[in-house]
Amino acid sequence: MTALANSEAAAGHQDVRACYEDVRAFYDAYYEALDDDRIEEWPNFFVDDCLYRIIPRENYEAGQKTCLMQGDSKGMLTDRVRAIRSTQVYAPRYCRRFYSSLRLVGRTGGELQIRQNLLVVHTLISQPSKILGCGGAHDRLTLSDNGNLKLIERTIVLDTEMIDNTIIFPF
Amino acid sequence: MNAVIRHWPDTGETRIPYWVYTDKDIYQSELERICYGEHWLYAGLEAEIPSVGSYRTTTLGERSVIVVRSAPDEISVLENRCRHRGVTICQARSGKVPAITCPYHQWTYTLNGSLRGIPFRRGIHGKGGMSADFSPKDLGLVRLKVEVVNGVIWASFSDKTKPFREYFSERLWHSYERMFSGRKLRVDGYTRQTIPANWKLLIENFRDPYHAGLLHVFLPTFGLFRPDQGLELRMDETGRHGSLMPVPGHDPKAHSGEDFLSETAHDKSLKLADRRLIEAVHELKGEETVSTSTIFPSVIFLQQINSLQVRQIVPKGTDEFELIFTFFGFEDDDEEMRQRRIRHGNLFGPAGLVTVDDFEVLPMAQSSFRAAEDEESVLMMGQGGRVNSDQGSMATESPIRGFYEYYREVMGL
What we know:
By secondary structure, chain A is of the alpha+beta class. In chain A, about 30% of the residues lie in helices and about 40% in strands. Chain A has four helices and eight strands. In chain A, strands 1, 2, 3, 4, 5, 6 and 7 form a seven-stranded mixed beta sheet that branches. Chain B is of the alpha+beta class. Chain B has two domains: about 50-145, Rieske Iron-sulfur Protein (3-layer Sandwich), CATH 2.102.10.10; about 170-410, Naphthalene 1,2-dioxygenase Alpha Subunit, Chain A, domain 1 (Alpha-Beta Complex). Chain B has helices at about 25-35, 165-170, 170-180, 200-205, 210-215, 220, 260-265, 335-345, 355-370, 400-410, and strands spanning about 15, 40-45, 55-60, 65-70, 75-80, 95, 100, 110, 115, 145-150, 150-155, 185-195, 230-235, 240-245, 290-295, 300-305, 305-315, 320-330, 375-380, 390. An eight-stranded antiparallel beta sheet of chain B has the order 12-18-17-16-15-14-13-20, with helices on both faces. In chain B, strands 5-4-3-6 form a four-stranded antiparallel beta sheet, with no helix packed on it. A three-stranded antiparallel beta sheet of chain B has the order 2-11-10, with no helix packed on it. The interface of A and B includes residues 58, 76 and 83 of A. Strand 8 (about 160-165) of chain A pairs parallel with strand 12 (about 185-195) of chain B, so a sheet runs across the interface.
């Protein structure tokens, strides 16, 4: 063990490398649930008091808060899932997310700050696949002692400001 | 001006022929007669360009324009096209500049569009340059007529357009003043999307109270729409502008809404996990719960719960338009109200829990028009003609007929 890992272990944290594997597994499961249309599972990747946002880059950089999607509680994410399943009207489609390698940009206490790039492609049935969104995710994860990871915050900043009509499913 | 050779059905505005959504000559004629004619187009909010030199670029009709604060009390709207070689000068969406300079040959214009200088006008070492009769004053950027009304910037390509308030009409003024009273605005951000449908379909959608509780299952399901609610439905004298304002219902027999609910497909067991998504505080004048205004031809204003929005329509041919939402609040909002507006924004925009329904259903109409251009829409709900009513019904299509009454007049159809 390195001195760094030693000191972190002493502070009650896991080894950085092991932690990285856990985080990767967490995201694999997250994206797989969404790509496979198991969106009912999506809110469970978040803590109760969470923040989820998809925000156009022009707003983000101007310090404006308007989002494409915004949930400031796990309940609000559940409400979006209910609307998608029970009230919203939309043409049938598939949605797939392509994500880059993860970068651990910060670690404070039991919290990890992760950045990654994200490309989302949607395919309306009988139509060519199109890019729905290209952007970067700025996430904060809790790292609990039992190894369970949950998102405290996920902010997706979208370069794609001109949306190809609508966004139905979360990223 | 293009000659329009199509023949409108004899049934008047109770039928809308599908070719109005697909014919390229009709579209060109719409640009000339409507967008570049005697109408006011939404150009932005004063709050977006706070100091001299602040500008934003936007698109009016199909033309790019620069909306700039050219003096402390003056806003100029200039076509974003260098008079020299036609280059689109400002590429950024917003910024702040001392003057407007084309990147190609550095022709420089003042903030109100006068041509101030061109490099090498007198040549280099006596050779080349412009002739003595070259007149910079004839080569300013094309200026539009501008009027700023309670914080909203309006521009017109025609000098003959009537003053805005007269254009919009006294009858509708209260719907304008309700959202834009002169209280200082604060812009909270934008969403942008391309919708594969004809631009008129969106205006029709906003003048269609009939669809509100039927297409948008979210609204009755979570209590944002009551079947017993009244409706104030108004149009100006021409029919081109309109406002719809639902008011709380007062008929005790209708309060259960059972008749309505049995006619709609919604699940009464659904409940929101977090009511803050729609919990609103009353803030604007009057008891109306929602107000929408369509201001011919380019913009819609909407207040619902605590979300305030401008929706600007940018036509892109017969089959496509861009829709830009500007979300705003007021400068003196407290932090709680700011949060509430952002939260309520979830219902609107390209991922809106409610608006997605509209943006998805309009292309479903557009995609069938091309193959059946001579077929017609049926607009008979609420009988024929158009009526203004302070006790109107949700079961009417009268405001859409009003829109087409004026549309036919201006288009010569």
